[in-house]
Design a protein that fits this description.
- By secondary structure, the protein is of the alpha+beta class.
- The protein has 2 domains: 178 residues, Beta-Lactamase (2-Layer Sandwich); 56 residues, Arc Repressor Mutant, subunit A, CATH 1.10.10.
- Strands 2-1-5-4-3 form a 5-stranded antiparallel sheet, sandwiched between helices.
- Helix 1 runs antiparallel to helix 2.
- The N and C termini lie far apart (52 Å).
Length: 261
C-alpha cells in the first residue's frame, strides 16, 4: 500500500490547485515513479494526429541515449513489434514474449535493444481523445533480476495515471500546430460539418436542419476559415482531429430545425 501511496503522491494532480502542464515536470515525475516501482528505465510516447496523413510523436524517456539514436536513425518504429501491439491491443505486453517470436534478430526490437543494455520490460498501451495513441514502457538493465508479477501490476497501475497526461500533450501539440486546441465553432457550424462528414450535400443538410442551402454554405465557409481549411473535406478532417466536432455531440439537433446561435 505504501508503494501505491507514493505513486499517487507523484502522479495524481490536484485539480483545484490549477497545476499547469510542463514537460520537464512530467519527465521528473516519470523518473521518480520508475524508481518507486523498481525499474531502471521508462519510455512514455504519444502520437498526436495533426492531419489524417501526419502525426507528431512526443517521447519522454531515460533509456540509453545510444539506443534511442539507433532507434531513430534506423527507423525501428516502423517494424517495432511493441508499437504494433499497442496499435491493436490494450493489453500489457512483456518484452520476453517478443523475443520468442519468429522475427529475424535484426528486426526483433527487443533483441536489438538488448544489444544496447536493455533487459526485461513491460509495455502498456494507452489511448486518449481524438485519435491519440500512446504507450508507456518500464524496463531494467540487461542481466537484472527477473521481472516480477508485482512489478507488472504496479506498471499497469502507473499507466492508468499517466494516461491522464496524454490530453495535456495533445493540447500542447495542437497549440503548436493550429495556434489553439479547438476552433470556436458555433452550433450551426458544428452541425453542418457533422452532416458533411456523413456525406451529405449542402442541399441535403439544408433539408435536414431546416434552412436554405445558401445558409448551409455560409456556415461551412465560416467553419473552414476558423479551421484554416482550404476545402470542406479538409475542414471536416481538422474539425474531427481538433475535437471541434465529435460523434454524437450534436445528436439533439439531428433531423430537427435548430435555433440561430
Amino acid at each position: 500500500m505504501k508503494v501505491v501511496e507514493k505513486i499517487n503522491s507523484i502522479l495524481v494532480r490536484d485539480l483545484q490547485a490549477g497545476e499547469c502542464f510542463n514537460f520537464d515536470d512530467l519527465n521528473r515525475k516519470l523518473s521518480e515513479v520508475t524508481e518507486v516501482i523498481g525499474f531502471e528505465h521508462f519510455l512514455f510516447a504519444v502520437s498526436v494526429p495533426v492531419t489524417v496523413m501526419r502525426a507528431e510523436n512526443v517521447v519522454l524517456t531515460n533509456q540509453p541515449l545510444d539506443w534511442r539514436q539507433f532507434y531513430e536513425e534506423n527507423e525501428v518504429m516502423y517494424f517495432d513489434q511493441v508499437v504494433l501491439h499497442c496499435r491493436n491491443s490494450m493489453l500489457p505486453i512483456h518484452w520476453k514474449d517478443i523475443i520468442k517470436n519468429s522475427v529475424p534478430d535484426d528486426k526483433n526490437v527487443i533483441k536489438l535493444a538488448s544489444d544496447f543494455g536493455l533487459g526485461e520490460g513491460v509495455t502498456v498501451p494507452l489511448r486518449a481523445n481524438h485519435g491519440c495513441l500512446g504507450l508507456i514502457s518500464f524496463s531494467n538493465l540487461k542481466g537484472a533480476t527477473k521481472l516480477s508479477h508485482e512489478a507488472t501490476i504496479l506498471a499497469t497501475y502507473v499507466s492508468s495515471l499517466v494516461a491522464d497526461y496524454i490530453n495535456d500533450i495533445r493540447n500542447h501539440v495542437c497549440e503548436q500546430q493550429f495556434g489553439q486546441v479547438k476552433s470556436n465553432l458555433t452550433l450551426r457550424e458544428q452541425v453542418c460539418l457533422a452532416w458533411v462528414a456523413e456525406g451529405k450535400s449542402s442541399w441535403e443538410v439544408a433539408q435536414i436542419i431546416g434552412c436554405s442551402e445558401r445558409t448551409v454554405n455560409f456556415h461551412i465557409q465560416n467553419a473552414s476559415e476558423k479551421l484554416n481549411a482550404f476545402s470542406r473535406t479538409q475542414a471536416v478532417s481538422k474539425a474531427l482531429l481538433t475535437g471541434s466536432i465529435e460523434p454524437m455531440l450534436v445528436y439533439r439537433s439531428v433531423g430537427k430545425p435548430i435555433s440561430q446561435s
